[in-house]
Write a structure and sequence with these properties.
By secondary structure, the chain is α/β, with parallel strands linked by helices. The chain has nine helices and ten strands. It is globular.
Length: about 270
């Protein structure tokens, strides 16, 4: 039976249920289930094998995805943690700074799947990618034994000019409806081929975050990201494109996806 380990560090997928009795717990109606478990179960149910993650920050989404992938493993083989975490982070930063990719496990066989962790900046500033924190959290959550992690310094907008195939693409960056549509059209070939695109943040949050109001999350005004496409008008604009936008959950931080696997592609 799948047992999900709640995300308990700063992340978009930080568990905020009031039952956890932690400083960040919330009584808000959209914080009582948790998108982290929903993301992990989404990976597990759909049996995604190749996941690309943009906007990982401290690794919350990566760990949720890895937990889902780990549950799919049907072989006994498991990979050990390869080295001291600080040494691994240093090696990863050195390699990715040259534009090359860096893999956690040097043996490329016998994995339930792989997660490619991409970020434009690996400088640990604000919510930019934090290599040390991600690796430390992967180790702590023990979700590395049957999952390969590949890190690379990648600008998403450059990547969209020639995107690689994927089963699931997870995007957790600030987006407007215009930016979402730009991404969707750039990925139409991959979407028609069965790739699923998942956007984190803001899905129909207007019920708990009235448009134009100021919302304080951990001392940061995030009103623009909470409501930029959560307003009903914006969501209707996205649905009107025929790109198969679907709300996966309104639980914090909210997940919206494009999934055309059961739809007929447009000509």
């Amino acid at each position: 039976m799948f047992e999900f380990k709640e995300i308990m560090f700063q992340s978009s997928y930080l568990c905020r249920r009031k039952a956890i009795n932690a400083p960040w717990s919330s009584t808000r109606p959209d914080c009582q289930v948790g998108s982290g478990k929903i993301l992990a179960e989404f990976v597990m149910t759909n049996k995604f094998k190749k996941i690309i993650d943009f906007g990982s920050w401290s690794g919350g989404s990566v760990i949720c995805e890895a937990q889902g992938l780990s549950s799919l493993s049907n072989h006994v083989c498991s990979h050990d943690w390869p080295n001291d975490t600080q040494d691994l982070a240093s090696a990863a930063l050195q390699t990715t700074s040259t534009g090359k990719s860096w893999a956690l496990h040097k043996n490329s066989k016998n994995f339930a799947g792989e997660i490619r962790v991409y970020d434009k900046f690996w400088d640990d500033m604000g919510q930019n990618g934090s290599m040390g924190n991600i690796l430390s959290n992967i180790h702590e959550y023990d979700c590395y034994k049957n999952v390969q992690f590949i890190f690379q310094k990648v600008d998403m907008w450059d990547w969209l000019k020639d995107p690689e195939p994927f089963d699931l693409l997870h995007i957790d960056i600030s987006h407007t409806p215009e930016e979402i549509l730009k991404m969707a059209y750039a990925l139409e070939e991959q979407i028609n081929a069965g790739g699923v695109v998942l956007f984190a943040g803001g899905a129909l949050r207007f019920a708990h975050a009235p448009f134009g109001s100021i919302i304080d999350e951990d001392g940061v005004d995030v009103s623009h990201t909470m409501t930029c496409f959560g307003d009903p008008i914006n969501y209707r604009r996205l649905k009107a494109t025929g790109l198969d936008f679907k709300i996966l959950t309104q639980e914090f931080p909210g997940l919206m996806c494009i999934d055309r696997r059961t739809s007929t592609p447009r000509n």
